[in-house]
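Please fill in the sequence for the structure shown.

STRUCTURE ENCODING:
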């Protein structure tokens, strides 16, 4: 088993920190997995729990649908994993501007077609995997 640090970016979300605005976030998880693909899969449940704890919800009401993707993944030492395992580092939020919305929507289409392995769908503990 290897230890990984996985950075997730979510866009088109709402949060109390953003007020009425639609925005996005970056958040980091530390997981143990057999490989990077498995680490990305393990993040689904952790992301759903963290989003629920911080009242972050997908904003799918408008023309733009929320999506979450693996922005970066690193193999880290066991010591770094031990220090950060189970620690809720929260979110770093950003506001999405008008011009950026179009770019982010096109990026989602690109990921759906050519980079599906980068997309992560938050998964509740009791739900069935897709």
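FILLED IN BY: designer on duty
SEQUENCE:
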């Amino acid at each position: 088993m290897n230890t990984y640090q996985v950075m997730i970016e979510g866009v088109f979300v709402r949060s109390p920190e953003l007020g009425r605005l639609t925005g996005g976030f970056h958040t980091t998880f530390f997981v143990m997995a057999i490989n990077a693909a498995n680490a990305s899969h393990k993040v689904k449940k952790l992301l759903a729990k963290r989003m629920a704890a911080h009242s972050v919800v997908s904003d799918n009401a408008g023309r733009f649908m929320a999506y979450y993707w693996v922005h970066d993944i690193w193999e880290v030492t066991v010591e770094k994993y031990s220090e950060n395992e189970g620690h809720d580092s929260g979110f770093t939020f950003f506001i999405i501007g008008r011009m950026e919305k179009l770019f982010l929507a096109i990026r989602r289409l690109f990921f759906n077609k050519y980079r599906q392995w980068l997309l992560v769908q938050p998964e509740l503990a009791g739900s069935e995997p897709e």
